[in-house]
């Protein structure tokens, strides 16, 4: 069986080992060949794992739908792939190009909707506008899809149903491939009270978290927080830290390339905090849970499906005072931390990497064989 992915991920063509790379490392074992079309990068064609071929555009993003059509037809003539997947996200270049490709070759496709940008809460006007576009484009791109893959059971399916997507097309297939050989409890001392991991962008709620950290430090001057990740908000975050004299309390790990290094930082932290406005998962919360680190999170994405409040995690609102109070309770109650950490650890075992990827591959193979 042969597969084509229309993806927005450019890290593969740049030689970076991100989540998509680690997925393909296992996923590729189930396919004779996988081709991936992605936006413009410095690379043109790149091969990994022997049977995965990355085709990056030579055009700017606005012309990406035409590249998808042209390259997709070219690959189909050479390889005759059995099915293709469209990674759907604003501004929907993948959806447009993928639908054009379907109209040309009539090969079945799966629309993958990881999360709805701007839903349930928008980080800025752009995300609010993208939420509106989702209502328009998802109805269009889902129309001829063989299935719509979602990675949470409530938030995205409910949105899709409201915009007119039939329930029979929506298929829940988790995308949380947790390597339990890496993300696991280590016998390490706790250097940090709080840890955050994610891209430093508005929808991650990082500025709200900083306000909460400032309040926590007012009550405990020795409190330490480490931030894993990088992004466009970093200069603003650094200015905030400097303005409020938090340099001795908040530390940047930056982008940490090795999963083992990320797991060690989680293990060195008492609490993982995720104040996101909108997410599909987020996967990083599950990674922390696998390390037996208690988590506090907003009600986004898969968290609504997985977390039972005060049992295997604690829910927070998009409010600095609420984050402060709930973090304080957890920091001050060793038994509650242990209970949530143990229950979270047990919960996340269902997302073991190889099993979850095998289920993902099986779903695609079944759809291709129908």
Automatic annotation (TrEMBL):
It holds the Pfam family Glycos_transf_1. InterPro entries: Glyco_trans_1, Glycosyltransferase_grp1. Residues 189-346 form the Glycosyl transferase family domain. CDD domains: GT4_PimA-like. It comes from the Bacteria. One of its GO terms (molecular function) is glycosyltransferase activity. This is Glycosyl transferase family 1 domain-containing protein. It comes from Candidatus Portnoybacteria bacterium RBG_13_40_8.
